[in-house]
Design a protein that fits this description.
globular, 289 residues, TIM Barrel, two-stranded antiparallel ribbon
Length: 289
């Protein structure tokens, strides 16, 4: 397989075939993210992509999932993305699920009918980084668009039949807007109604604008207990039809897995116990991005 740079994929795609159709991120301006800094976004040539699909057809016959990398595969123009998906169906007919990273901008560039076409061709799940439902926080971290934009495009993807996995980031708003960020994020998630939510905890990366703001005192990093209080407020304000809420990433202090709304009361009680010190938190040295 032809790979360039660091390969980043969702935890749930750990056993998937990784087909790198793009390099980098089409937005690449978020102040907290160092994943693709210095990497110029590009879409790989069809020749390279086809060679990788042909290789996968011979070497990965027991894999049932495929993930299209890198940071925003949904940005690939419709005709080219349709071509790639058709080749996957043709050469890897055993693949049961194709996933891709998306953002509100890339979804806005696809009509409802185009998204339905992608779904029919096997693209069944999209991973989207909401990060926060607080518009001021989104603006500060240079995310593209506001919460209404995120909701609109996410609802469109779900209407097309594509499952939605949304990532949010605890601690992103700092201390001053911590609880407001948590409340608004829960409300935004409720409006998006994703199939999956993944809550990560902010870890500052040297070389990013947010790290520089922290170093000069412009950004206040919250403490572990404050992270838990954010998580509690977020979950209390998240009302899903039937979705899995995960906070079991390596960055999190307390592993949480709940199906909402069924497990909401149970998980809130669990967080309360952790805040009271009845449940130990993950030590700092064990946390990772």
């Amino acid at each position: 397989m032809h790979y360039e740079g660091n390969m980043i994929r969702p935890p749930s795609e750990a056993n998937s075939i990784l087909l790198q159709a793009t390099v980098g991120c089409s937005h690449n301006k978020c102040t907290f993210c160092a994943a693709y800094k210095g990497v110029r976004f590009k879409i790989k040539s069809d020749d390279i992509i086809l060679k990788d699909i042909a290789y996968a057809s011979k070497q990965f016959r027991f894999h049932r999932r495929l993930f299209i990398c890198d940071g925003d595969g949904m940005i690939i123009p419709q005709k080219r993305l349709v071509f790639i998906l058709k080749e996957i169906q043709k050469q890897l007919p055993w693949i049961e699920r194709v996933g891709v990273y998306a953002n509100a901008k890339s979804l806005s560039m696809k009509s409802l009918d185009e998204l339905k076409e992608l779904k029919q061709l096997g693209l069944t799940i999209a991973y989207l980084g909401l990060e926060s439902g607080d518009d001021e926080t989104l603006k500060k971290v240079h995310k593209k668009g506001d919460s209404a934009y995120m909701i609109e495009e996410s609802v469109k993807a779900k209407k097309a039949g594509i499952k939605l996995s949304v990532t949010v980031l605890l601690g992103l708003a700092g201390r001053q807007r911590s609880q407001f960020h948590a409340e608004k994020t829960g409300m935004t998630l409720s409006a998006m109604d994703p199939d999956y939510v993944g809550a990560l905890s902010l870890m500052l990366v040297p070389g990013t604008p947010m790290y520089d703001d922290y170093a000069n005192g412009a950004f206040q990093m919250i403490e572990p207990i404050e992270m838990l209080k954010e998580l509690r407020t977020m979950i209390a304000n998240t009302h899903l039809t039937d979705g899995l809420f995960h906070a079991n990433h390596a960055s999190n202090y307390l592993p949480i897995r709940a199906r909402l709304p069924h497990d909401q009361d149970r998980v809130l009680a669990q967080i309360d116990d952790a805040i009271k010190g009845k449940i130990p938190l993950k030590p700092e040295y064990m946390r990772a991005l």
